Structures are given as C-alpha cells and as structure tokens.
Amino acid sequence: MSVVKVTEDVYAIGASDRDGKKLFERLFPIPEGVAYNSYFISDEKTAVLDGAASEVEDDYFVNLKTALGGRPLDYIVLNHLEPDHGAAIGRLIKTYPEARLVGNPKTKTILSSYVCDDAVSDMLVVCEGEELKLGKHTLKFIMTPMVHWPESMMCYDESDKILFSQDAFGAFGAEGDEIFDDKDFDDERLEKMRRYYANIVGKYGAQVSAVLKKAAGLDIKTICPVHGLVIRKHIGEVLRLYTLWSGYLPEEKGVLVVYASMYGHTAALAKEAYEKLKETGVNAVLFDVSETDTSYLVSGVFRFSNVLAASVTYNAGIYPKMEYFLNDLKALNVQNRAFSFVESGSWAISSGKLMREKAESLKNCRIVGDTVTLKAASYDKAAFDKLIADIAADVKA
Ligand SMILES: Cc1cc2nc3c(=O)[nH]c(=O)nc-3n(C[C@H](O)[C@H](O)[C@H](O)COP(=O)(O)O)c2cc1C
Ligand SMILES: [Fe+2]
Ligand SMILES: [Fe+2]
Predict the structure, then answer these.
(1) Which of 258, 271, 346, 378 most suits a substitution to test ligand 1, by most atoms within 8 Å of the C-beta?
(2) Quick one: the chain helix, strand, coil %, rounded to 5?
(3) Residue ranges around ligand 1 (CB below 6 Å)
(4) C-beta of residue 278 within 8 angstroms of C-beta of residue 315
(5) How far is the CA of 109 from the centre of ligand 3 (A)?
(6) Separation of CA 84 and ligand 2 centre (Å)
(7) Tens-digit pLDDT profile for the chain (397 aa)?
(8) Which ligand is nearest to the CA of 225?
C-alpha cells in the first residue's frame, strides 16, 4: 500500500503484511494477511493518526515521509497503543522530535510503560469531546474505553465527516491500493470483518454499544479503521452488523454444526445431521473442530442463531478442542444462542452433560432438543430424527 488519498487532505499511509503463515496476536491464523492502516492529515498543521506494526514499519515511514513532502510533523495522534499500531511510536518520536503526541490520560499512563521519553510527559492530553484544530480540519475526540483497550479512543473530523475508529470496524485481510469498500460486500469480505470482530472485540459488546450510541449522533461519511478497508459505501450495513454483534444477536437463523471425532463415528452422525438440516431447508454450516481454528467457529456463532455440537467423550471429559471452543464462547461473553448436542463414547459417556453445562452457563442461551447419545457406532435413530426436527422447528420459529 502506498500513499492513497482518502479525501482532499486526508491520506492513508498504512501498509499490509501478506505473510499468510502468521498468527495475529500469535493466536489467530490470518491466511488472508492483515492491513495496518494509519492516516495523515495535511492542513495548516500536519497530523499522523496511529502508528504501525513492526512488520510494516519501514513501509509506513516511507509513506509518512512521502505524505509530509518535506513539511514538519506537528501531531502524532494515538487512538490505540496496542503494538500492532504502537510499535512505531518510539521511532516516530525519534524521527519527528518536533511532533507533539496526542492522547488521553490512559494513553499517557500506558505509553509511559512502553516508551520512556520526554515526549510522553509532554503529551497533549485530550478528554471526551475535546478538539484539536489543525486548520480546516478539527478532530473531536471520543473516548472508547475497552474497545478494546483501556486507552482506546476515536476521533471525528468535522470538516470531512470522517470517523477514525481505530480497531472498531476493522477486518482481517491484506489490502492493496484499492483501499475503499466500493465493491459489493461479498461473503468473504463479511467473514473477514466478522471473524475480526468476534475474536478481537467480541467480549466488549457493552462498550461497543456505547460507542454506537455516540456514533449515532455524528454525520459519518467515511470510517477509517486501522485494519481492513476504508468504509464509505457500506456505512449503514456495517453499523447494522455492529449493532447485532455488540448485542450478541445472530445475523441470521441457521445452525453451526461442529464436531469432534477421532475415528469417524461422531463425524458421520454430525454430517448426517448437517445434511438432514439442509434437506429441511435450514441454513447450516459444518466444521470439524480438529481441522478448524477456533476463531472461525466463534465467528460462525456470531453469525448463526443455533449451534449443534457433537463430541466424543475424552478421558471422562469433552474432547479438548471442543472444550476450548466452548470455553472461548464464555470468555467472549456470547449470549442469546440455542444449543443442541450429540455425545459419544464407548464405555462411560459424559461429553453431552458437560457440554450442556457450558452452554447453560452462557447468558440467555437455550437448549433445543434432547442430547443424542452415540455409543461407539450405535444410536437411537428415532431420537436422532427427533433432535433434527426440534432444531429445524426452532430455527424456523
Ligand atoms: C484418549 C481417549 C480417551 C477416551 N475417554 C473416554 C471416556 O472417558 N469415556 C468413553 O465413553 N469413551 C472414551 N473414549 C472412547 C471414545 O470416546 C470412543 O471410542 C468414541 O466412540 C470415538 O468416537 P469417534 O469414532 O467419533 O472418534 C476415549 C478414547 C480415547 C482415545
Ligand atoms: Fe487492538
Ligand atoms: Fe489492531
């Protein structure tokens, strides 16, 4: 990504990491890579909004230099300090000692643990609703604590009606010079945004809802997040999705069928369940917990109303990868979903009861149908058909 104009005086100066083997936060696979966006405003005063990750730092500094065109840098606005944006701050301070850091009180506290420099103690500290005048452009600051770090904030450019939203409205995926969302939002694009939201921000629904309330009072023409595309065509759609996701409400009626199986018996029954659900006209997707990173399963839960989990019993417990997935739903504060279960084992089967307990511990989650027990290769066919019918009825209700 080179320097790309967003509006007359606003430029995108970020860069993408295309290394598909990397793990975001050393946890989430990103075969699609990821973009680390940053923005530059050229006005009577110059300002850079957010830093860069170390992976793209060199490109970022080249872009910033190009955007500055020999002018001094007046302000470094720090909307979010997480090192996937903040890694460059030390070098920014050294390269542009004339620039003043801009952040909120928490930015100052947290940054002083990362960077020990006079520039941090001299930070221009801004609070909710305060403004920074750059000339034609005035940045109004919006505090967004725990979306998704304590110091997280956004700023709104009143002249161009741009919301610089830091991680909010971000997405996985490397980007090229086509930085805008002008093409239709296909399923792949939506999944990059959903998987990012669910796994990175998902836990903080209440805080995101508070931000959406503040955003409702703004006339937003463009959203500039620090990952993914600049949003100007799909603002209504993105706000609609964020309202659902932050309220832990499903996007659509349908079933995420996920199975844990070592020798194929549980897998076969889960596949049969998936096919039967499809035959009855229910929207469903099927995942093998052993072949699928949890982040994709979590994303599926944010999408669909129902989950059918099928797991072997493993050392008197739930199969470890299924257990990790169910624990993650609790950690991310998932709510308002319906769960159904298939359990399996060969001598003392307990995975159904244990999975059910985990689902029941989630806020406002329901159990649909009776758990079907698969003993080695044997199961009650009528009970299985009844479970499928119950799930289908629940989805269609
Ligand atoms: C390490 C290990 C631990 C197991 N622990 C239990 C158990 O506690 N209770 C049980 O009924 N079966 C247990 N099993 C047996 C499997 O759950 C059982 O064979 C199941 O039918 C396998 O289903 P699958 O064909 O879908 O892999 C265990 C199997 C393994 C390999
Ligand atoms: Fe972040
Ligand atoms: Fe980020």
Answers:
(1) 346
(2) 35, 25, 40
(3) 261-267, 312-316, 344-349, 376
(4) no
(5) 19
(6) 7
(7) 699 999 999 999 999 999 988 999 999 999 999 999 999 999 999 999 999 999 999 999 999 999 999 999 999 999 999 999 999 999 999 999 999 999 999 999 999 999 988 999 999 999 999 999 999 999 999 999 999 999 999 999 999 999 999 999 999 999 998 999 999 999 999 999 999 999 999 999 999 999 999 999 999 999 999 999 999 999 999 999 999 999 999 999 999 999 999 999 999 999 999 999 999 999 999 999 999 999 999 999 999 999 999 999 999 999 999 999 999 999 999 999 999 999 999 999 999 999 999 999 999 999 999 999 999 999 999 999 999 999 999 999 9
(8) 3
Residues 105/125, Cβ–Cβ less than 8 Å: yes
Cite the residue boundaries of each domain of the chain with CATH code 3.60.15.10: 4-246
Pick the atom of ligand 1 nearest to 374's CA.
21
Cα–ligand 3 centroid distance for 167 (angstroms): 5
Q: Quick one: which H or E segment has residue 318? A: strand 317-318
Per-residue tokens: 319? 């199969």
Q: Which CATH superfamily is domain 256-396 in?
A: Flavodoxin domain (3.40.50.360)
Please give the backbone phi and psi of residue 97, each rounded to the nearest 5 degrees, phi first: -65, -15
The amino acid at 347 = W
Q: What are phi and psi of 342, to 5 degrees?
A: -120, 130
- Reference 36, options 10, 22, 55; nearest CA is 55
Query: In angstroms, what is the span from residue 48 Cα to ligand 3's centroid?
Result: 16
Could you tell me the CATH superfamily of domain 4-246? Ribonuclease Z/Hydroxyacylglutathione hydrolase-like (3.60.15.10)
What is the C-alpha separation between 292 and 363, in angstroms, rounded?
25
- Range(s) of the chain covered by CATH 3.40.50.360: 256-396
Q: Write the residue with the smallest CA distance to atom 4 of ligand 1.
A: 314
Q: What is the 3 state secondary structure string of 39-106? A: EEEECCCEEEECCCCHHHHHHHHHHHHHHHCCCCCCEEECCCCCHHHHCCHHHHHHHCCCCEEEECHH
